[in-house]
Amino acid sequence: MIEIDDKDHQLLTRLADGLPLVPRPYAEIGGPLDLSEGEVIARLRRLLAGGVIRRLGLIVRHHELGYRANAMAVWDVPDDKVDALGAKLAAYDFVTLCYRRRRQLPHWPYNLFAMVHGKARARVLTQIDQLNDQVGLRALPRQVLFSNKRYKQSAARFGTGLAKAG
Amino acid sequence: MMALLDEIDRRIINALQGGFPICPAPFAAAAETIGIGQDDLLQRLQRMRAGGLLSRFGPMYHAEKLGGALTLAAMAVPEDRFETVAAQVNAHQEVAHNYAREHHLNMWFVLATEQGARIGEVLAEIEAETGLTVFNMPKREEFFIGLRFEA
């Protein structure tokens, strides 16, 4: 865990809504915080290296890019197998997210989650079939939940806007 | 929207979902890698952002390393109440995403809070407001969080 001081917090808060689209964005971000361009760059490099900033770049609204077949594939995997299987799923380029999550028995027995975002439902189902066959998941209890409507997609707002996720 | 993307726009989208340079003139550096001019890159990014294709041009943070928390939660919402319950859930600023899914548990939302303890409080508020059970499925392990989309 890297140390994050007050100036880092201020910088992260200011950066949360995005970089200004100007030739010297780090200088512009630093101005109101009394940080030079060089200091902003040094802090951001450190925060990126420490994993506080997972990534920096453009974040698309995937629906608008045509990714409308959005599937959450889930499996009930024995606890001692889930790490190895999760790592295998993560290697597929069409798997966009992959997590182990807590079960909610008896309502929800599934602990391994993989998202597959695609442009056509049939193609996504074929890809999930491929996972079942190639990763050895077919015999496990499993489901595919497509989303048919998005009710909200915002950057995660952490009160101060301090942290943002997808 | 899609029809308005040309080959250069696609190249930009595919090249810049991460790995943006941290140096004094990052857009110039990125533009050079893509093979276009800085002004062209900035104009195209502005256009894509204004058109709603980009959520933003900036960082994705690691919530837990900032002391925050994230979770995925689901509810079984009666169809005739779906819109009302969606509005009740989305009214919480901590709700980042909310999707209808085809399952008995038909509403799935991501909650992001500045402090870990707040997750349980917000879920309890949602249960009280809707009278529905919220199933909380926090992450135990992360195998992959690429979340990149090819244009």
What would your notes on this structure say?
- The complex is a heterodimer of chains A (166) and B (151).
- Chain A has helices at residues 6-15, 25-30, 37-49, 82-90, 121-134; strands at residues 53-60, 69-75, 95-101, 112-118, 142-153.
- By secondary structure, chain A is an alpha+beta fold.
- Chain A folds into 2 domains: 6-49; 69-147, Alpha-Beta Plaits, CATH 3.30.70.
- Chain A has a 4-stranded antiparallel β-sheet.
- Chain A is elongated and about 60 Å long.
- Chain A starts with 5 loop residues before the first helix and ends in a 13-residue tail after the last strand.
- Chain B has 151 residues and is an alpha+beta fold.
- Chain B contains 5 helices and 6 strands, in the order αααββαββαββ.
- A 4-stranded antiparallel β-sheet of chain B has the order 3-4-2-5.
- In chain B, α2 packs across α3.
- The longest helix of chain B has 14 residues, at 117-130.
- Chain B starts with 6 loop residues before the first helix and ends in a 7-residue tail after the last strand.
- The relative contact order of chain B is 0.15.
- The model of chain B has no long low-confidence stretch (mean pLDDT 93).
- At the A-B interface, α2, α3, β1, α4 and β3 of A face α2, α3, β1, β2 and α4 of B.
Name a few traits of the molecule.
heterodimer; A: 166 residues; alpha+beta; four-stranded antiparallel sheet; 5 helices; disordered C terminus; B: 151 residues; Alpha-Beta Plaits; 2 domains; 36% helix
Short description:
Chain A is an alpha+beta fold and 166 residues long. Helices cover 31% and strands 25% of the residues of chain A. Chain B is built from five helices and six strands, in the order αααββαββαββ.
